């Protein structure tokens, strides 16, 4: 694995006006590693706060209820909400926890959350990029959740296929059904019904 090449690939996705020292700092402080499909790489119980940037591959964020059941709550790829992590500040009163599992083989850039904070304070271009990316993430999550909660399963599936059809090429129907709160058989029936229209 060529770490420098992968860091350069990450840097190409950033605005051109970010401080050139940012790249050097990434090489010093970043850790690039590979994960096999199905690996859990973030669990809320971990004390260390890390940021992970998906360079290649995809993962699923799951919540775990008090009975130990997992529910998919978001999908991430190298091109769709690639930044994930264990960044909750205080969730001690929560009745659910979360974890991240790789959906396919992944290449990930790992950074301490302090790295991001340091560069937000140090470089206005990076701070602007983080702000804009955060707003886009929140917009995506809110839009998806609003549609999931506000539409029938059939209408939501139509919308999801139209707006985020790539998810169906990268993620298993089982996980998409779990995300929607339906069984895989029900999802299959909905797809068939939509195709017949």
TrEMBL record:
InterPro entries: cNMP-bd_dom_sf, RmlC-like_jellyroll
SUPFAM superfamilies, per database record: cAMP-binding domain-like (SSF51206)
Name of this protein: Crp/Fnr family transcriptional regulator
Source species: Apibacter adventoris
The organism's taxonomic lineage, starting at the top: Bacteria, Pseudomonadati, Bacteroidota, Flavobacteriia, Flavobacteriales
